[in-house]
Protein backbone atom coordinates (compact mmCIF):
# COMPACT_ATOMS: atom_id res chain seq x y z
CA UNK A 1 0.00 0.00 0.00
CA UNK A 2 2.82 2.43 0.79
CA UNK A 3 5.00 1.51 -2.19
CA UNK A 4 4.49 4.83 -3.98
CA UNK A 5 6.47 5.94 -7.06
CA UNK A 6 6.24 8.20 -10.13
CA UNK A 7 3.82 10.70 -8.56
CA UNK A 8 3.06 13.72 -10.75
CA UNK A 9 0.19 16.13 -11.43
CA UNK A 10 -1.47 16.38 -14.85
CA UNK A 11 -4.55 18.01 -16.43
CA UNK A 12 -7.83 16.13 -16.05
CA UNK A 13 -9.02 14.31 -19.20
CA UNK A 14 -12.63 13.22 -19.67
CA UNK A 15 -13.45 11.16 -16.59
CA UNK A 16 -16.27 8.72 -15.84
CA UNK A 17 -16.03 9.64 -12.16
CA UNK A 18 -15.61 13.42 -11.93
CA UNK A 19 -17.08 16.06 -14.26
CA UNK A 20 -16.15 19.69 -13.46
CA UNK A 21 -18.48 22.43 -14.68
CA UNK A 22 -19.59 26.00 -13.94
CA UNK A 23 -23.06 26.59 -12.49
CA UNK A 24 -24.57 29.96 -13.47
CA UNK A 25 -27.52 31.54 -11.67
CA UNK A 26 -29.18 34.77 -10.57
CA UNK A 27 -29.92 35.16 -6.85
CA UNK A 28 -31.67 38.19 -5.37
CA UNK A 29 -31.15 39.98 -8.66
CA UNK A 30 -27.37 39.36 -8.77
CA UNK A 31 -25.71 37.15 -11.37
CA UNK A 32 -23.43 34.53 -9.82
CA UNK A 33 -21.34 31.52 -10.77
CA UNK A 34 -20.15 28.49 -8.81
CA UNK A 35 -17.65 25.84 -9.92
CA UNK A 36 -18.91 22.34 -9.21
CA UNK A 37 -18.11 18.66 -9.64
CA UNK A 38 -20.59 16.06 -10.82
CA UNK A 39 -19.83 12.78 -9.05
CA UNK A 40 -21.61 9.51 -8.29
CA UNK A 41 -23.83 9.08 -5.26
CA UNK A 42 -22.50 6.54 -2.76
CA UNK A 43 -23.17 4.17 0.12
CA UNK A 44 -21.38 3.81 3.47
CA UNK A 45 -21.81 0.93 5.89
CA UNK A 46 -20.99 0.70 9.59
CA UNK A 47 -19.97 -2.92 10.16
CA UNK A 48 -19.73 -4.12 13.76
CA UNK A 49 -18.49 -7.61 14.58
CA UNK A 50 -20.52 -8.85 17.55
CA UNK A 51 -18.42 -11.99 17.97
CA UNK A 52 -15.42 -9.99 19.13
CA UNK A 53 -17.05 -6.58 19.77
CA UNK A 54 -14.97 -4.69 17.21
CA UNK A 55 -15.76 -2.12 14.53
CA UNK A 56 -14.64 -2.98 11.02
CA UNK A 57 -12.78 -0.21 9.18
CA UNK A 58 -11.06 -0.08 5.82
CA UNK A 59 -7.66 1.51 5.36
CA UNK A 60 -6.55 2.77 1.96
CA UNK A 61 -4.44 5.35 0.15
CA UNK A 62 -6.41 8.45 -0.81
CA UNK A 63 -4.72 10.65 -3.44
CA UNK A 64 -6.82 13.68 -2.42
CA UNK A 65 -5.45 13.56 1.13
CA UNK A 66 -1.92 12.97 -0.14
CA UNK A 67 -2.15 15.90 -2.59
CA UNK A 68 -3.26 18.28 0.14
CA UNK A 69 -0.24 17.29 2.24
CA UNK A 70 2.12 18.46 -0.51
CA UNK A 71 3.32 22.06 -0.26
CA UNK A 72 1.94 24.17 -3.15
CA UNK A 73 5.46 24.93 -4.39
CA UNK A 74 6.30 21.23 -4.60
CA UNK A 75 3.14 20.44 -6.58
CA UNK A 76 4.78 22.20 -9.53
CA UNK A 77 7.60 19.64 -9.61
CA UNK A 78 7.79 17.30 -12.57
CA UNK A 79 7.76 14.36 -10.16
CA UNK A 80 6.77 14.52 -6.49
CA UNK A 81 9.54 13.59 -4.07
CA UNK A 82 8.14 10.55 -2.25
CA UNK A 83 11.03 10.63 0.23
CA UNK A 84 9.84 14.04 1.36
CA UNK A 85 6.19 13.07 0.98
CA UNK A 86 5.79 9.37 1.86
CA UNK A 87 2.61 7.48 1.01
CA UNK A 88 1.67 7.33 4.69
CA UNK A 89 0.54 10.96 4.43
CA UNK A 90 -2.35 9.83 2.24
CA UNK A 91 -3.58 6.81 4.21
CA UNK A 92 -7.19 7.11 5.35
CA UNK A 93 -9.23 5.12 7.84
CA UNK A 94 -12.87 4.87 6.76
CA UNK A 95 -16.13 3.01 6.90
CA UNK A 96 -16.77 0.45 4.20
CA UNK A 97 -18.15 2.47 1.27
CA UNK A 98 -18.53 2.63 -2.48
CA UNK A 99 -20.00 4.63 -5.33
CA UNK A 100 -23.37 3.86 -6.87
CA UNK A 101 -22.36 3.13 -10.44
CA UNK A 102 -24.52 0.06 -11.12
CA UNK A 103 -28.18 -0.27 -12.03
CA UNK A 104 -29.01 -2.10 -8.80
CA UNK A 105 -30.89 -1.29 -5.59
CA UNK A 106 -28.74 0.77 -3.24
CA UNK A 107 -29.00 -1.84 -0.48
CA UNK A 108 -27.64 -4.50 -2.84
CA UNK A 109 -24.66 -2.31 -3.68
CA UNK A 110 -24.06 -1.88 0.06
CA UNK A 111 -24.15 -5.66 0.49
CA UNK A 112 -21.59 -6.12 -2.31
CA UNK A 113 -19.27 -3.49 -0.83
CA UNK A 114 -19.23 -5.21 2.58
CA UNK A 115 -18.31 -8.51 0.93
CA UNK A 116 -15.69 -7.06 -1.43
CA UNK A 117 -13.97 -4.74 1.04
CA UNK A 118 -14.46 -6.49 4.39
CA UNK A 119 -15.17 -10.12 3.44
CA UNK A 120 -18.50 -10.48 5.27
CA UNK A 121 -21.53 -11.98 3.51
CA UNK A 122 -24.43 -10.03 5.03
CA UNK A 123 -28.05 -10.93 4.15
CA UNK A 124 -30.02 -8.00 2.78
CA UNK A 125 -32.48 -8.12 5.66
CA UNK A 126 -29.63 -7.52 8.10
CA UNK A 127 -28.55 -4.27 6.43
CA UNK A 128 -30.44 -1.44 8.12
CA UNK A 129 -30.72 1.96 6.49
CA UNK A 130 -30.01 4.68 9.04
CA UNK A 131 -30.20 7.87 6.99
CA UNK A 132 -28.91 9.64 3.91
CA UNK A 133 -27.15 13.01 3.66
CA UNK A 134 -25.39 15.34 1.25
CA UNK A 135 -21.61 15.25 1.13
CA UNK A 136 -19.12 17.78 -0.18
CA UNK A 137 -21.80 20.47 -0.24
CA UNK A 138 -19.37 23.17 -1.37
CA UNK A 139 -18.56 21.57 -4.72
CA UNK A 140 -20.60 18.40 -5.27
CA UNK A 141 -23.56 17.78 -2.95
CA UNK A 142 -23.81 14.09 -3.83
CA UNK A 143 -26.08 11.79 -1.83
CA UNK A 144 -24.60 9.20 0.49
CA UNK A 145 -26.81 6.51 2.04
CA UNK A 146 -25.72 5.18 5.42
CA UNK A 147 -26.37 1.57 6.52
CA UNK A 148 -25.60 -0.38 9.68
CA UNK A 149 -25.09 -4.11 10.09
CA UNK A 150 -23.90 -6.49 12.78
CA UNK A 151 -21.77 -9.43 11.67
CA UNK A 152 -20.25 -12.52 13.25
CA UNK A 153 -16.99 -14.31 12.55
CA UNK A 154 -19.01 -17.07 10.85
CA UNK A 155 -20.25 -14.55 8.27
CA UNK A 156 -16.73 -13.86 7.00
CA UNK A 157 -16.57 -15.87 3.78
CA UNK A 158 -13.96 -13.85 1.86
CA UNK A 159 -10.66 -12.20 2.67
CA UNK A 160 -11.84 -8.72 1.71
CA UNK A 161 -9.43 -6.08 0.52
CA UNK A 162 -11.37 -4.85 -2.51
CA UNK A 163 -11.56 -5.94 -6.14
CA UNK A 164 -9.60 -5.27 -9.33
CA UNK A 165 -6.73 -2.85 -8.55
CA UNK A 166 -8.02 -1.74 -5.14
CA UNK A 167 -5.56 -2.03 -2.25
CA UNK A 168 -7.52 -2.11 1.01
CA UNK A 169 -6.61 -3.35 4.47
CA UNK A 170 -9.27 -4.33 6.99
CA UNK A 171 -8.73 -2.76 10.41
CA UNK A 172 -10.60 -3.62 13.62
CA UNK A 173 -11.10 -1.30 16.59
CA UNK A 174 -12.70 -1.77 19.98
CA UNK A 175 -15.25 0.68 21.38
CA UNK A 176 -12.66 2.33 23.69
CA UNK A 177 -10.38 2.80 20.68
CA UNK A 178 -13.24 4.35 18.69
CA UNK A 179 -13.95 6.76 21.55
CA UNK A 180 -10.29 7.75 21.68
CA UNK A 181 -10.29 8.26 17.91
CA UNK A 182 -13.29 10.62 17.81
CA UNK A 183 -11.89 12.59 20.76
CA UNK A 184 -8.53 13.07 19.08
CA UNK A 185 -7.42 16.69 18.52
CA UNK A 186 -6.71 15.72 14.91
CA UNK A 187 -6.14 15.89 12.12
CA UNK A 188 -8.06 12.60 12.04
CA UNK A 189 -7.32 10.67 8.81
CA UNK A 190 -11.04 10.01 8.20
CA UNK A 191 -13.81 11.84 6.31
CA UNK A 192 -16.64 13.61 8.19
CA UNK A 193 -19.10 10.90 7.13
CA UNK A 194 -17.02 8.29 8.95
CA UNK A 195 -16.87 10.39 12.11
CA UNK A 196 -20.63 10.98 11.92
CA UNK A 197 -21.17 7.22 11.60
CA UNK A 198 -18.95 6.53 14.61
CA UNK A 199 -20.74 9.12 16.74
CA UNK A 200 -24.08 7.59 15.70
CA UNK A 201 -22.84 4.15 16.73
CA UNK A 202 -21.50 5.38 20.07
CA UNK A 203 -24.78 7.14 20.83
CA UNK A 204 -27.27 4.48 19.74
CA UNK A 205 -25.52 1.09 19.79
CA UNK A 206 -22.36 1.01 21.87
CA UNK A 207 -23.88 0.72 25.34
CA UNK A 208 -25.27 -2.78 24.83
CA UNK A 209 -21.82 -4.00 23.78
CA UNK A 210 -19.89 -2.15 26.50
CA UNK A 211 -21.63 -4.25 29.14
CA UNK A 212 -20.20 -7.43 27.66
CA UNK A 213 -16.58 -6.30 27.42
CA UNK A 214 -15.50 -7.24 30.93
CA UNK A 215 -11.82 -8.04 31.25
CA UNK A 216 -11.33 -7.85 27.48
CA UNK A 217 -12.30 -4.16 27.49
CA UNK A 218 -9.78 -3.39 30.24
CA UNK A 219 -7.03 -5.10 28.30
CA UNK A 220 -7.91 -3.10 25.17
CA UNK A 221 -7.32 0.19 27.00
CA UNK A 222 -3.77 -0.83 27.79
CA UNK A 223 -2.95 -2.09 24.30
CA UNK A 224 -1.53 -0.45 21.21
CA UNK A 225 -3.46 2.76 20.42
CA UNK A 226 -1.99 3.36 16.96
CA UNK A 227 -4.92 4.68 14.92
CA UNK A 228 -4.20 2.39 11.98
CA UNK A 229 -3.74 -0.83 13.97
TrEMBL record:
KW Protein biosynthesis (keyword) present:
no
- According to the entry, every stretch annotated as the Nudix hydrolase domain falls at 38-195
Q: What is this protein called?
A: Uridine diphosphate glucose pyrophosphatase NUDT14
Question: What EC number(s) has UniProt assigned to this enzyme?
Answer: 3.6.1.45
Give a GO biological-process term: ribose phosphate metabolic process
Which organism is this protein's natural source? Euphydryas editha (Edith's checkerspot)
Under catalytic activity, the entry for this protein gives: UDP-sugar + H2O = UMP + alpha-D-aldose 1-phosphate
Which keywords are on file for this protein? Cytoplasm, Hydrolase, Magnesium
The entry's cellular-component GO terms read: cytoplasm
Required cofactors, per record? Mg(2+)
Q: What is the purpose of this protein?
A: Hydrolyzes UDP-glucose to glucose 1-phosphate and UMP and ADP-ribose to ribose 5-phosphate and AMP. The physiological substrate is probably UDP-glucose. Poor activity on other substrates such as ADP-glucose, CDP-glucose, GDP-glucose and GDP-mannose.
**GO MF, any single term:** metal ion binding
Q: How does it assemble?
A: Homodimer.
Where is the protein situated, by its record's location annotation?
Cytoplasm
